[in-house]
Every structure is written in C-alpha cells, then in structure tokens.
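Hi all, a correction to my earlier message: I attached the wrong file for DNA replication protein DnaD. Here's the right sequence:
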Amino acid sequence: MIPRKLTGNASVDAIATMAISGNVIPATWYKTITTASGKADLAAINILSDVLYWYRPSEIRDESTGDVIAYRKRFSADLLQRSYDQIAEHFGLSKRQAKDAVVRLEELGAIRRVFRNVDYGAGTMGNVMFIAIEPARIFELTYPEQSGGLDPMAEKRHRYDGSDVEPDTPMSAFRHRCGEIPTDIYKDYSETTRRSSSDHPTNQPENLSCDKGDGGLAETSESFERAWEKVPSSKASQCAKEKAWRVWQESLLGDDVDEDFLAGSYRRYVIQQEQAGTEARFIATLSTWLKPNRPITGLSLDTALENRRRQRTRAERQAAERRAEERRRMEEERIQALEIAWRDSDPEAQRLWSLAWDYGAGFDRMGDAMGEYRAYRDEKFKPG
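and the right structure:
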C-alpha cells in the first residue's frame, strides 16, 4: 500500500494508513500508580488499562445517518469476569505477578475483586472472579491535580440531541473547566454495582474507612492489643487500628477462630518476617493479614488455620490410636485372667503347662509341650 501524502512526513503518513487500536494509558498513571519504591507499577497500569477498556461503553450508530444513538457495555454480566490465568497470559506475566498486581490495584481503590459461584450447564463453579471498577478513584488517579469533579463535557457526552447546547455557545465554555461537577455523577453506577454484587455470594470484605465522627476507637480486647503490638510502627496509625479491629471482629464469626489463635498466629507471622530480614513496609498490617485471599508471604491466616486443622486431625488420630491400644491391652488382660482360671480348674491343662516350663526336659521338649498345650487350650478354652 502506497501511503497518501497527508503531512509530508513519510513515516507519519504511513502510520496514518494503519487502523491501530488498543488500550488507553493516561500519562498521569505513571506517577499515580507506583510501587513501594516510587517506580511506575507497569503490570498494574497495563491491567487497569485493559479493565478500563472493557468498562468503556461502545457506540451504537444509526445505519442511515451514522449518528451515535446509544451506548452499550462490552461484557455480558453486571461485572467484568476475569481470571488470573487470563491476565497472566495476556500480559506475559506469571500467575503470581498477575495476582499481586490485581491486589495492588484493589488496595489502591481502583478496582474491587468479587468472587461468586457461577452456574454453568455442567454444574457450578465456585470462586469465579469478577472485577468491579471504581470510577471516582479512576478519576482521582487520572486527574490528580483536580480537586473538584469531572469535566463538564463528561455530562454532555451522554446527550445526543444537543438540546442543552446553545448554537452560539463556544467550545471554550466547555473545555478545561474541571471542578464544577462533583464526582457523585457516578453515584448511580456505584450503588447499582454494590447492590447487584450483594445479590451474589462473595468472600471479599467490604471496603473499610475510618469514621472520624464516631469519637474514636471503641474498647478493644486484650488479645487484639497483643496482636497490634507487632504491627510495624510505620503502619500503626489510629485509622489502621480501627480498620483492623473491625476486620478482627468479623474474623471471629468463624467456628474455627478465636482471639488467642488470631493474636498468636499474627505475632508468629511478624516474627518470622523480622527474622527473615523483611523490611517493615513489606510486612502486612493486621487488617490485611486477616482478610481472605490475600497473597501473604510467610504464615498467612489461611496457612495458620490449615496448620491448626492438621494438628487437630493428627492429635485426634493419635488419641484414637491410644484408646484402641488401651482397649486391646485391657482385653488381653481379661482373656489372660480367664485362661489362668480355666487352667487351674483343668488337670490336663495343668499337666501340659508344667511340661512346657520343665527346663530339665530340654528346650525341644518344652517347645513340643507348649504346642500341645496351645492346641488343647484352643479346643477346650472358650473365653466369654
């Protein structure tokens, strides 16, 4: 194909002939989505751009006029369904790298993971991951300098008849005026998403925030305070403590969990990390450690629960073996006592028993006599 002369630059004109499409990455994300070291979190940025693509509506145009008449969502369910394997394969990551990046985006507040049981024709698949997006947080990450709301044009994009725009209104009246429309234009979307998500089973905890008007943290328990002592000081804020206390109370709803177990397990986790030389910033806070499905390096809560279940199972098995051994020993003693009583009352049994222990007759004769005694015992002795 011979490129048309559009700009006079051969390379630019050649690129103009290509229908290049794909995800959009705002340049500000390289500053607002970063790792702990302050570098751009490229894996998280790429994943978020892909999620954002699927949440951007596609246009429906009139066949005759070509005008946009409506928008539709790109996915079938109420939320976007994704798996770590799909993300890893798409971006050339390992499954662990993909999962860690998704968790970082969730901790950043840009997305939420929702796990559901999905019915298929062949049965039910459990813990299928869906990803919900938080538009208000996306706006904050994309426009960090804006303290207000969205560009007024964001509202105009949803109007197609032009009734809200005067014919002589200059476009400058709409451009570059951020801060006049609050971010609660996403309120209906967020409420709909949360309402639809609540209709499905999920093991994800709700987003936690500190309530600054409640008068402070309520009285906690002694076990919680023992666990909180091990939280790295750089993360031990009052807000973090309030969140941890709420997650702590929710964790106690399980039958297998008690406060002493939680405190001891978290303390062991922190001690293990400290002994391994892990930096404090990479040690999970108490609230993070308590939440399910978090990629914790070292002793996670799930691992601690599994270890305790194994210990209990092993202890129960050993106790059952000891009880069985005790019953066997008692039965042997009972049979032995009955045999002695029977032997004392049977002259032939007494004679054979005496020969079996007559060392003067030699070991060969003693062995033969013991065999004769046992044959006679098996025939005559019937323990009750």
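Sorry for the mix-up. The radius of gyration is 37 Å.
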